[in-house]
Design a protein that fits this description.
Layout lengths: L1 E4 L9 E4 L9 E11 L1 H8 L6 H4 L12 E9 L11 E5 L7 E5 L3 E3 L15 H11 L7 E5 L4 H12 L3 E6 L4 H5 L5 E4 L4 H6 L3 E6 L6 H6 L1 E9 L13 H10 L6 E4 L6 H12 L7 E6 L3 H10 L5 E5 L2
Helix pairs in contact: 3-4
GO molecular function, one term: oxidoreductase activity
Pfam families: ADH_N, ADH_zinc_N_2
Protein name: NAD(P)-dependent alcohol dehydrogenase
Length: about 325
Amino acid sequence: MQAIVHSTYGISSLALTDQPAPLPRPGEVLVRVAGAGVDRGVWHLVTGRPLLMRLGTGLFQPRNTGVGIEVSGTVEAVGEGVTRFRLDDRVFGVGRSTFAELAVAQEGNLAPAPESIPLADAAALPVSALTALQAVRAAEIGDGAQVLVLGASGGVGTHAVQIAVARGAEVTAVCSTRKAPRVLELGVTRVLDYLGEESAVVAAGPYDAIIDTGGNRPASQLTGLLARGGSAVIVGGEQAGTALLGGFSRQLIAPLVGLVGRRRLVSLVSVTSAADLIELVGLVESGQLRPVVDQRLPLARAGEALNLLASGAVTGKLVLQVD
């Protein structure tokens, strides 16, 4: 089978090569890949940044040469003990080395794919939309809530604003002016430019909830925008922190800042959940959630996709479409 691999850290090391097809172990499902989502987690794993990540992935070179996490496709084979899926079922979820024609995933990390969107596009959901769902839940967003979403045009942000709107919130979205028209289509109340409208961000508050998907605001500044009893959830920080910790530095300090002033600060690390994947399917099938797919690229352009993601040029998600 064809698969993207890398032997050293760095996007330039990615190569499309012939690899042996993986075999599903007990409890695993082999998926013939239709689409593979391109997310920030993959960028971190490929580049080895921030450096703290290498404690788990290999200090000098990656232990796992495969690339990719998000997947959608059809069931090719099942391992011993798998009961939820049969051959040719349409599925989506989180797997291993998904930038390939075939990939394996734990049965519990998959769900039936939504029928109302192209199968390849379902690969935009398993990490980004699931993280957004868990962030909205952690922020306790409900009907009538005033919500601020920072990084609203990104993979997590475009899903977060839709889920918050579906729960009845009034959403103020912050992103670049160039991406504002696409974000406005998602049902937000207003879109503010992240560079030049700080006073407008403050004036539209205070907020019952903030979801920060990739900003560089200090945690203390986030609490200053919250109403009393409000919650801010930090799920990223690509422009913040140091080479060692990256955006994790904000997430480490957030619980301490959140102890002050009856305003809650939460550092979210999303966890794959079949129940949450199924909830996402319900939102998609009801028309309340749609993945915003900026481009669909062939597998051979995986490196280009990661560079595009890092450049900030992408609105929503990139999907590698595997024919």
